[in-house]
Amino acid sequence: MARGRKSLEELKEQLFLDPGNYRLNVEMGFYYLDYDRKMTYKYLKRALRFCDSQTDTGAIEQLFSDMEYVYPELMGGMEGMMNLLDENEDAEFNAIAAGVETHGVSHMLEEKYKNASVTWYVDLAQVYQYYNKELDYILMDGDEFLGGFPGIVLNGIKSALKPEGRLILRVSNAAWYGRLFDILKGENPDITGEKSLSHPYMKDEIANILEKTGFEAEFSSAKADVPARDMEILNGIIYQLEDKLPCADINEFTNKYYLIKASQRMI
Prior knowledge:
Low-confidence stretches: 192-196
Strand order of the largest sheet: 2-1-3-4-8-7
Helix content: 40-55%
CATH class of the largest domain: Alpha Beta
Number of strands: 8
Radius of gyration: 20 Å
Structural class: alpha/beta
Strand content: 15-25%
């Protein structure tokens, strides 16, 4: 998908008049391709929210192919979500993958579980609207949806899941060493433009949120490779802090994401 020939000023003017135009948002995203990958991601993500998934299937597939090139972390940690399903390959179940970044997961589920019904939604609110105690699984990107109101979101999820249904969740780890290094360099790892790109959690923090909303959580980790030089720096920091500032998550720094299988607690 090639970048358009319009100037930035022309694109801004057209988007101001028609902010929900899928093609214009794609074009704006690729305008930023060579300059700011986070701005690219912002506009491509907007484009997905406005497109018609029934008629723009080919365009969506191309868009995701390009997004993975532009923003390679996009699908990070997603593949492991599928491994948390407790199902045989011939099982029949009803699953929803919710969020921009779960698009690839929905395809993997369809490929592995031929008898299952798997649907992908960009917008989690549609899941609440269309399903009532009907789903065996909801696979969700917590960075995109939990935000500042996780309790509201998780209660909505409970309304769509069967009593024995499970939430498969990926959240960014606030204790990941890359975040610390960004902070030490004077950068804010959570801000892109004017909008937060993710909402990372400490392990105990997200566990407490899930417990308070009636879920029991099992954690898996998506470990990142730590270069030797970075490990040397980290070991020095941890050695200095371990006794002075006790932290339950201090040894979780290699986990870029937490993958969580959450079951509803039976009362």
